[in-house]
Write a structure and sequence with these properties.
This protein is 35% helix and 22% strand. By secondary structure, it is of the alpha/beta class. The strands form 3 sheets. Strands 3, 4, 5, 6, 7, 14 and 15 form a 7-stranded mixed sheet that branches. A 6-stranded parallel sheet has the order 10-9-8-11-12-13, with helices on both faces. Strands 1-2 form a two-stranded antiparallel ribbon. Helix 3 crosses helix 11, helix 7 packs parallel to helix 8 and helix 10 packs across helix 11. It binds NADP nicotinamide-adenine-dinucleotide phosphate.
C-alpha cells in the first residue's frame, strides 16, 4: 500500500515521502480500513515540527482520524462487519491507504457524509464533547470563553456550549474568522490581534466573569485565561499551539513552555475555588475506552439528529487531494485554515 510517513522534522514540503509499506493485519478487537481520506490535526503539525512527544520514531505514519471501508476483522470484533463505512480514531497510521483501528474507536457513517465532516466528528467534536459534557457542568447563561473559535475544536466547543444555553465569548485571529464564529453562534467575538482579550472581557463583564475557559494555545494565553475564572470556574487546557512559535529545539521549547504557563499554586487555586483540567483524548482512548466509545456514540447521534454541524474549510470543501498534503499542512500551521481539513486519496 501507499503510505506517506513523516521522514524528517521541519518544513511541510520536505517532511513527507510516499513509500510502499505492507498492509497491516488486524488482530483481536482491531479492524482494517481501506482509507478514503484522513483528517489533519494540529497535533500533526506539532509532530512534524518535532514538538509532539507521543510521535513514534521516524519514519512515522501520522494520522488520528480516517474514513473508509472495513476490509478485514480481528477475531474478537463483535459489532462491525466487512463493508461497513466508518470513521475511526487511529493511533497514528492514518496517512496511508490502509489503516488499523480498534472497534471501540469506530463509528458507522452514511455514504453521504464527507470525509472532512466525519473526521471532525471523531476528533474535534469528541474532544469538545469530552470537555463540555464529561469534565464540567455548564448551566444556562454561564459565561464561557472559547479560544480559536473558528478552528476545528473551537467551532465544535461553541456549538456544544450553545446547546447548553451558555453565553459564549470567543477569540479569533482574523476578521473573516470573526464572521464565521458569529455565524456558528458565538455571542461575542474578540479579535485578539487588535484587542487584548483579558482587558476587553474585564471591561465588558467585570473581573473574573468566566465559568469555563477552553484553551489550546498555552503560555501567556493560559495565564490570562486563568485570571478570568470566577470562583468554581474551570479551565480546560487541551493544547500548546504557542509552542510552534518557538525558534528553539524541543528542549528549549519545552523550557519556554513551562515558564510561559507560570507558577500554579494548588492552595491558591483551592482558596479561589478554581478547577484546572488537562485534556488528552489519546489518554482517554487508551485508558478509558468505554468512555471514549460513549462520547463517539453521543457525537454521531447529535450529528444524525442535525443538532451539530462540523465546520469545514471552504477550499476544496476541506478535502485536499493527497498531492496537496504539504500545502494542507501549511494552511493549518499558518492559521489560514478554517474548521477541519482532510486529505483524500
Ligand atoms: N488534547 C487533545 O486531546 C486534543 C485533541 C484535538 C485537538 N487538540 C488541540 O486543539 C487545538 C485545535 O486543534 P485543531 O486540529 O482543531 O486545529 P484548529 O483549531 O483548526 O487550528 C489551530 C488554530 O489555533 C489558533 N492558533 C492560536 N495560536 C496559534 C499558533 N501559535 N500557531 C498556530 N495556530 C494558532 C489559530 O486560530 P486563530 O487564527 O483564530 O488564532 C489556528 O487556526 C490544537 O492546539 C490541538 O493540538 C487537542
Amino acid at each position: 500500500m501507499k503510505a506517506f510517513p513523516l521522514i524528517r522534522y521541519g518544513n511541510a514540503h520536505e517532511a513527507f515521502e510516499e513509500r510502499e509499506l505492507d498492509v497491516p493485519t488486524p488482530t483481536g478487537t482491531e479492524v482494517l480500513i481501506k482509507v478514503e481520506g484522513f483528517g489533519l490535526n494540529f497535533a500533526d503539525v506539532m509532530a512534524r515540527r518535532g514538538l509532539y512527544q507521543d510521535t513514534p520514531p521516524l519514519p512515522a505514519v501520522l494520522g488520528y482520524d480516517v474514513v473508509g471501508t472495513i476490509t478485514a476483522l480481528g477475531e474478537k470484533v463483535q459489532h462491525l462487519k466487512i463493508g461497513d463505512r466508518v470513521v475511526a480514531l487511529t493511533r497514528f497510521g492514518g496517512y496511508a491507504q490502509y489503516s488499523i483501528a480498534q472497534e471501540f474507536a469506530c463509528a458507522k457513517i452514511t455514504l453521504e457524509t464527507p470525509v472532512s465532516v466525519a473526521c471532525a466528528l471523531a476528533t474535534q467534536f469528541c474532544t469538545a464533547q469530552y470537555m463540555i459534557e464529561k469534565s464540567m457542568r455548564i448551566l444556562e447563561n454561564d459565561k464561557v470563553l472559547v479560544h480559536s473559535g473558528a478552528g476545528g475544536v473551537g467551532s465544535a466547543l461553541i456549538q456544544l456550549a450553545k446547546r447548553k444555553k451558555a453565553y459564549v465569548i470567543t477569540t479569533v485571529g482574523s476578521k473573516n474568522k470573526s464572521e464565521i464564529a458569529k455565524k456558528i453562534g458565538a455571542d461575542e467575538v474578540i479579535l485578539y490581534s487588535e484587542e487584548d482579550f483579558k482587558k476587553e472581557i474585564e471591561l465588558r463583564h467585570g473581573l473574573k466573569p468566566m465559568m469555563a475557559v477552553f484553551d489550546a494555545i498555552g503560555g501567556k494565553n493560559f495565564r490570562k485565561s486563568m485570571s478570568l475564572l470566577m470562583p468554581s470556574g474551570t479551565l480546560c487546557a487541551y493544547g500548546v499551539a504557542e509552542n510552534t512559535q518557538s525558534k528553539g529545539g524541543p528542549l528549549l521549547t519545552g523550557i519556554k513552555t513551562l515558564l510561559g504557563f507560570g507558577f500554579l499554586s494548588p492552595p491558591l487555586m483551592m482558596m479561589n475555588g478554581n478547577n484546572l483540567i488537562g485534556v488528552n483524548m489519546l489518554r482517554v482512548a487508551d485508558h478509558h475506552p468505554l468512555l471514549f466509545k460513549e462520547i463517539l456514540t453521543e457525537v454521531i447521534e447529535l450529528f444524525n439528529q442535525g443538532q451539530i454541524k462540523p465546520l469545514v474549510d471552504t477550499v476544496h470543501n476541506g478535502q485536499f487531494p493527497i498531492s496537496q498534503l504539504a500545502m494542507a499542512h501549511e494552511l493549518l500551521e499558518t492559521r489560514k485554515s478554517i474548521g477541519k481539513i482532510s486529505v483524500i486519496f
